[in-house]
């Protein structure tokens, strides 16, 4: 089977460990003859800038599937889930000293600095807010709706592009990439990925971070999968 598009995470996947963009990964992505969708837990403005700089603009899944846009100047599709996340944050902030990040730009989730007991907060949240979850992407802590993830974002993006989710190769490294890799037709985990992501991947690169993406794309090309 030849896949028709790529959907790929940013941090830890097309960056180095210090979050600097891997120029080799960006250059490799630009050589592809199929669309590349950026899928990130970060905000839309960051994702747009990253997509422009990488040179794959501009189909974007931002905020872990909460915000989707299929063109740089198009109106984004924003999920209406921020209110339950705000309520969960207000409840937890009475128990923990929390610091919001990107709060001005966030439309569908709350993102926090990792400076509190996440496991304890997760237990408390599960008792009082069963439809909201806390995930740790290694770069930040996200309070998000359980109904929204990069997998649901890929479903919507595929619809907008006139494709099936099984037409995509998904590449990622962290827990927020799980549903995206499960939804895609072919799943790639880079070498630095969490073990549970490697367990479900069709291909795991030996190299890590952006170098892992370069390796994976070379494998896909040499195998005539893209």
TrEMBL record:
Q: What's the protein here called?
A: Phosphoglycolate phosphatase
SUPFAM superfamilies from the entry?
HAD-like (SSF56784)
* GO molecular function terms noted in the UniProt entry: magnesium ion binding; phosphoglycolate phosphatase activity
| Catalytic activities | 2-phosphoglycolate + H2O = glycolate + phosphate
The residues that hold substrate are 150
EC number annotated for this UniProt entry: 3.1.3.18
Residues of the active site are: 9
Instruction: State its role.
Output: Catalyzes the dephosphorylation of 2-phosphoglycolate.
Organism of origin: Methanolobus sediminis
């Amino acid at each position: 089977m030849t896949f028709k598009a790529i959907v790929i995470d940013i941090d830890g996947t097309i960056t180095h460990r210090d979050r600097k963009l891997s120029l080799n990964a960006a250059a490799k992505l630009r050589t592809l003859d199929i669309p590349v969708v950026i899928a990130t837990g970060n905000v839309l403005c960051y994702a747009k800038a990253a997509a422009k700089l990488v040179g794959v603009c501009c189909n974007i899944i931002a905020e872990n599937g909460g915000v989707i846009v299929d063109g740089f100047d198009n109106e984004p599709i924003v999920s209406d889930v921020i209110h339950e996340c705000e309520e969960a944050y207000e409840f937890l902030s009475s128990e923990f000293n929390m610091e919001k990040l990107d709060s001005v730009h966030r439309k569908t989730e709350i993102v926090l600095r990792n400076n509190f007991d996440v496991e304890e907060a997760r237990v408390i949240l599960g008792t009082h807010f069963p439809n909201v979850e806390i995930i740790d992407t290694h770069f930040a802590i996200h309070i998000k709706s359980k109904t929204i993830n990069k997998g649901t974002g890929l479903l919507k993006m595929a619809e907008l592009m006139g494709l099936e989710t099984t037409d995509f190769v998904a590449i990622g490294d962290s827990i927020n990439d799980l549903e995206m890799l499960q939804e895609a037709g072919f799943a790639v985990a880079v070498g630095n990925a969490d073990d549970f992501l490697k367990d479900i991947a069709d291909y795991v690169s030996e190299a890590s971070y952006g170098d892992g993406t370069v390796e994976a794309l070379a494998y896909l090309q040499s195998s005539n999968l893209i």
